[in-house]
Write a structure and sequence with these properties.
With 763 residues, the chain is α+β, with helices and mostly antiparallel strands. It has 4 domains: 1-133 and 179-245, Substrate Binding Domain Of Dnak, Chain:A, Domain 2; 261-360, PH-domain like, CATH 2.30.29; 377-558, Rho GTPase activation protein (Phosphatidylinositol 3-kinase, Chain A, Orthogonal Bundle); 710-762, SH3 type barrels (Roll), CATH 2.30.30.40. 48% of the residues lie in helices and 13% in strands. The longest helix is centred in the N-terminal third of the chain and has 72 residues, at 71-142. Residues 705-763 form the SH3 domain.
């Protein structure tokens, strides 16, 4: 207060600091009010959504199969109504919360901002205005000439003094107001927030109370649900057994009735010449004893409304061949009251037609079997279709995804596959054949080949690179395998892939990206010989292979593969997990059991170790990928192996092993009694490993395998500076066994490090 009379620069600086802090408080409250109003709006929206959800629960009612409901089913049916009531009660509490936020938070803060902070702003305006007036008058007074009359000077002095007193009073009031607002904001800002949280806690507490009251009902409902589930589990196996029995042979488990045959047939209804004919679906029944045939028109897609029944007495039934009608599975019936006017029917399949023909005593004819081949006609078909697609429909949205009408596709294929009519079919200029019919015919032709275009034999090898490896290694592997395809397959594949690459270039308009084309043509170009769950899981990898073919078609088909590239391994397995690294304290010796090796190592001849099996590119892979024990060799000098020798001699190598204490025991690995049983052993003999027989005192040693080479069969990314990173096909120099179980030491590109033993194959 005393500083008000001095009005020093420091006083003014402190006043400005207070004003800045109050402006900051004002902005904070303004932002808080905005967020608070948004919170209220969001709470109301949430409440509305919860109420709508509750209404949906309340309005739904379960329908139960059977004659009567169990008590459990009745409780389950009523449960949704209970859930709805619970949410309704909860939302009532939320509405109370939303109202309390307005009363306890929004209005008090708005009042403080308006009444208190607004008042300070008004005081500041007066203070600034009075400051300007005071110092302007003072400067004017000081500029008065001393030659003025004494009365005038005295009058001017009085005026300045009065103005100064007024300024000091206003200054004192302003400072007092600043002091007051700084203290007031501490409780008037925080108290509304506290009230808001109190309302929030009350809401959550009410929710807790509702949940506690609901708990008893919830426990009872869980018992009802579990009882219903148990009954379901008890009957499901019987229902599935019945279903599978009918699925295996539906004809043997038909519902007993008086009809010899019944089912849906399409009936041709002829119209006047300009309008052609239409095919209407009918549910048909036939009694052989009375030869009465009934038809009831029924269309599932129009609400399932049945038409008027038509009945006639059958005279005869004959089969219609495809050379007389542009539809498959057709046969003619003639009624006794309409001689010479046959009614043409169409069954759903060839098997269905055979059943109808047998029931109607119709004459069964041998049907033509459509079989696509990679011959001159096959290449002509594909080239004509591709030319038409690129001429007429390269920009059609969903190209190859949108399918054509089956009957039209079959008709087009029959014309194209017939040498007499193939050249007459004009696909590029004719409006009779839609683009979707042409693309569907192409896909149908490829699916009708005796084996997929990329062959059953190479299917597994194509899948392997798609599952792992770098992008470059995948392309190289697919490149290599494509050139292993039969020449006709490779030629057809090149024509097709070149076309698909052209289609993908127009993806902005036809929306058929490389990925979309992979989805469409993956199952068409590749499929396993045997349908298994594993094969189904590999579908996505078929798509990846097709994507690689499309994206790199120039390299794959126009260049020869790298002759040094390792042949892909025909195994549909993922890279094995690297063995865990062991942590060791300095000076601590690693103790690990000796592995049981193939006991038929040829040790009778002194130089038997000089002819190890060098190449086990496929045969050794079982040892690389299987989970059977892998020999964990020790690189310790022979002297450290006392008491741990394998007891073997040339006469009884296959019969005995030793444990760590040196006691002999019979071998538990009789399956290893042939050299081929564990091919990895001959490739992984440890350096300076001794075999001894205490009974004879004889010793036989396998010489060191230092300076051996190995090739990577899986890619690996190093997880430690002491490990090596590598891709498939990398060649390691000077490979030796590490002290780490399951790890090797080797050199790659001048760097030495650890290699997972099950990721490589010895050369």
């Amino acid at each position: 207060f005393s500083d008000c009379y001095l009005d020093s620069p420091w006083f003014r600086e402190r006043v400005r600091a207070h004003e800045a802090e109050l402006e900051k408080t004002n902005k904070f409250i303004k932002e808080l009010l905005k967020d608070g109003k948004n919170l209220i709006a969001a709470t109301k929206n949430l409440s509305a959504a919860q109420r709508k959800f509750a209404h949906s629960l309340r309005d739904f009612k379960f329908e139960f199969i059977g004659d009567a409901e169990t008590d459990d089913e009745r409780y389950i049916d009523a449960s949704l109504h209970e859930f709805s009531n619970f949410l309704k009660n909860l939302e009532e509490q939320r509405e109370i919360l939303a109202l309390s936020v307005t009363e306890t938070l929004i209005k008090p803060l708005e009042r403080f901002r308006k009444e208190q902070l607004g008042a300070v702003k008004e005081e500041k305006k007066k203070f600034d205005k009075e400051t300007e007036k005071n110092y302007s008058l003072l400067e004017k007074h000081l500029n008065l000439s001393a030659k003025k009359k004494e009365l005038q000077l005295q009058e001017a002095d009085n005026q300045v003094e009065q103005n100064r007193k007024h300024f000091y009073e206003l200054s004192l009031e302003y400072v007092c107001k600043l002091q007051e607002i700084q203290e007031r904001k501490k409780f008037e800002c925080v108290e509304p927030v506290l009230s808001f949280f109190q309302g929030l806690f009350t809401f959550y507490h009410q929710g807790y109370e509702l949940a506690k009251d609901f708990n008893h009902y919830k426990m009872a409902l869980q018992i009802n649900i579990q009882n219903t589930r148990n009954r379901f589990e008890g009957t499901r196996s019987e229902v599935e057994e019945l279903m599978n029995k009918i699925r295996r042979n539906p004809q043997e488990h038909k519902r007993a009735n008086n009809f010899t045959m019944e089912g849906y047939l399409y009936v041709q209804e002829k119209r006047p010449a300009p309008f052609g004919s239409s095919w209407v679906k009918h549910y048909c029944t036939y009694r052989k004893e009375t030869k009465k045939f009934t038809m009831i028109p029924f269309e599932h897609r129009s609400g399932g409304k049945a038409g008027d029944e038509e009945l006639f007495v059958l005279t005869y039934c004959t089969k219609r061949n495809t050379d007389t009608i542009d539809r498959r599975f057709c046969f003619d019936l003639e009624a006794s009251d309409r001689p010479g006017v046959p009614v043409t029917m169409q069954a759903f399949s060839e098997e269905d037609r055979k059943l109808w023909m047998e029931a109607l005593d119709g004459k069964e004819a041998v049907s033509d079997v459509f079989c696509a081949q990679l011959d001159k006609i096959g290449f002509t078909v594909i080239k004509k279709c591709i030319s038409a697609v690129e001429t007429r429909g390269i920009n059609d949205q969903g190209l190859y995804r949108v399918v054509g009408v089956s009957s039209k596709v079959q008709r087009l294929l029959s014309l194209l596959m017939d040498a007499k009519t193939c050249n007459e079919v004009d696909l590029e200029n004719s409006v009779d054949w839609e683009v979707k019919t042409i693309t569907s015919a192409m896909k149908q032709y490829l699916r009708s080949l005796p084996e997929p275009l990329m062959t059953y034999e190479l299917h597994g090898e194509f899948i392997v690179p798609a599952k792992s490896g770098s992008p470059e290694s995948r392309v190289n592997a697919v490149h290599f395998l494509v050139h292993k395809l039969p020449e006709k397959n490779k030629e057809m594949l090149e024509i097709l892939v070149k076309h698909l690459a052209n289609v993908s270039k127009h993806a902005k308009r036809n929306l058929m990206t490389v990925a979309n084309l992979g989805v469409v043509f993956g199952p068409t170009l590749m499929r396993p010989q045997e349908e298994t769950v594993a094969a189904i899981m590999d579908l996505k990898f078929q798509n990846i292979v097709v994507e690689i073919l499309i994206e790199h078609h120039e390299k794959i088909f126009k260049t020869l593969p790298d002759a040094t590239f390792p042949e892909p391994i025909s195994m549909s397995v993922s890279p094995p997990n690297a063995p865990p690294r062991q942590s060791r304290r300095q000076g601590q010796r690693i103790k690990r059991p000796l592995a049981v090796y193939n006991l038929c190592l040829e040790l009778d001849d002194a130089d038997s170790h000089n002819s190890p099996r060098e190449d086990t590119s496929t045969g050794s892979m079982d040892s690389l990928s299987s989970q059977s024990p892998t020999p964990a060799f020790s690189s310790s000098p022979p002297g450290l192996l006392d008491g741990n020798h394998l007891i073997m001699d040339s006469g009884d190598l296959a019969g005995w092993t030793t444990n760590l204490s040196g006691q002999s025991r019979p071998s538990m690995v009789s399956w290893m009694n042939t050299p081929s049983a564990n091919p990895a052993v001959t490739n992984t003999v440890p350096s300076a490993f001794f075999f001894s027989n205490p009974a004879t005192g004889s010793h036989k040693a396998v010489e060191s395998i230092a300076q051996r080479k190995a090739r990577a069969v899986y890619p690996c990314e190093a997880e430690h500076s002491s490990e090596l990173s590598f891709q498939i096909g990398a060649i390691f120099e000077d490979v030796q066994f590490s002290r780490e179980p399951g790890w090797l030491e080797g050199t790659l590109n001048g760097k030495r490090g650890l290699i997972p033993q099950n990721y490589v194959q010895f050369l």
